[in-house]
Amino acid sequence: MQKSASASSLGPGGLDLTQAFFKQIQNTAPPSPTKRHTKISVIGVGNVGMAIAQTILTQDIADELVLIDVNPDKLRGEMLDLQHAAAFLPRTKINASVDYSVTVGSDLCIVTAGARQNPGESRLNLLQRNVALYSKIIPPLAKYSPDTILLIVSNPVDVLTYVSWKLSGFPSNRVIGSGTNLDSSRFRFLIADHLDVNAQDVQAYIVGEHGDSSVALWSSISIGGVPVLSFLKKQQIAYEKETLENIHKAVIDSAYEVISLKGYTSWAIGYSVANLARSILRDQRKIHPVSVFAKGFYGIDGGDVFLSLPAQLGRGGVLGVTNIHLTDEEVLRLKESAKTILEVQSQLGL
Question: Is it the case that residue 265 has pLDDT exceeding 70?
Answer without folding.
Answer: yes
